[in-house]
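It would be a great kindness if you could assist me with a short task in structural biology. A protein sequence and the structure tokens that stand for its backbone fold form the material at issue. I should value your view on which stretches of the chain appear to form regular backbone elements. The record follows directly beneath this note.
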Amino acid sequence: MVDMLSFDATDSDYIDELTDYVAVPSVSRDATAETMRTAAEWLAAQLSFAGGRVVATQGHPVVRADWLGAPDAPTILVYGHYDVQPTGDLAEWDTPPFELVRDGDVIRGRGVTDDKGPVFIVLKVAQAFLAQEGALPLNVKFLFEGEEEIGSPHLPAYLREHADELAADLVISADGAMWRPSEPSLSIASKGLVTLDIEVTGADGDLHSGRYGGTVANPVHALSEILAGLHTSDGRVAVEGFYDGIPALSDERRAAIAEVPFDDDAYRAGLGLDEVFGEAGYSTLERLWERPTLEINGVRAGGKYTVIPHAATGHISCRLVPGQRPERVLQAITDHVLAHKIPGVRVAVRPDDVGVPAYTIPADHAAIRAASAALADVYPGQDVLLAVIAGTLPATALFEEVLGAKTLFFSFSTADENLHAPNEYMRISRLREGMRAWERLWRLLADGPHRLAPVSRDGS
């Protein structure tokens, strides 16, 4: 019988500690350097057992730590982030966003489920191993960044500069929520991402709509025509080449998705809609998990006053699936948009710097097998669902490119916990469930049939 760690008898001590962490308003978009460093130092102090330290980057610092006391065991790299999203409209919060509040069986506060709570779980497991057994079952390196919520702009350079120090047989991400609370799940894929602006300009400045109306092209009209042409009426992306490289959805995969319990009516009703809509020929879950998207996220132009705006901008994002390359998708959209010849305006496509390919990990990978077994122990009698993250985690592709290591998503956040929205929360039960699951996962990866094989460092 494998030994089991003991965790605190009540949740209160854990919640008190997490309260201090959530209280730091580490909003990477606009927090001061001092505030971000305070959050990083809190983490580093928790990692003192492994030489926790705050390390400078060209942006917000990373937190590093290394426990390498198991020379014959595999090595994992635990990844997460300490930065959080902006609060949005404070009037929409029931409680102050940076005061962790216990509300029945949940705790509320900005960042509690994305990603401070899930990272906290890993820290407590590592501390319990060392306090009770004097060692971890495998070698563990820790890397927590402070810029995930703004696209990790400085992580690639840092990772490349320190690749040898961060080398591992597997990356385990404490970020990346379970799909829904009704069953335990693991994600075997996440979608890629490209974003861009379409800019349409006309006259040198805004024009009085009475004096000039009807004599000049209106950039808002032109942009509306371009945006409307990005899709066909049945929801398919109308950009030639957008779907290039995507393999056909197999009968086997469609059958597997069809077996996943999913209530279309409940999904629709939960969104306050009369009907769902999307690419024809696919179910709602197939669209979410298997198909790429092109979405118009916003339009900026003029206002409610009587002018003809001199410029209009459309903000576009595309979620990509395996087979698509970000640079090819951007080129296809650019060609499509510039093919519109609209008199009297100038059209430009301005891609953002970051393009992320889709990420996958095989369902039979040792990490997935071990994680499935760990979740089965914690949630007996429940099937472990293999799901897809419809969002994007840029670090996964980066870890595979630079370290040659796959990433296992092992978060005890769930996707319904108002991530990025007001009143973000986390289920208190997930704290202990997560600790037990991380304990079991580390033991399984260290020894037995799910032991990690070393990653080849020579490209073979």
The first helix runs from residue 12 to 22. Residues 187 and 387 are 5 Å apart (CA to CA).
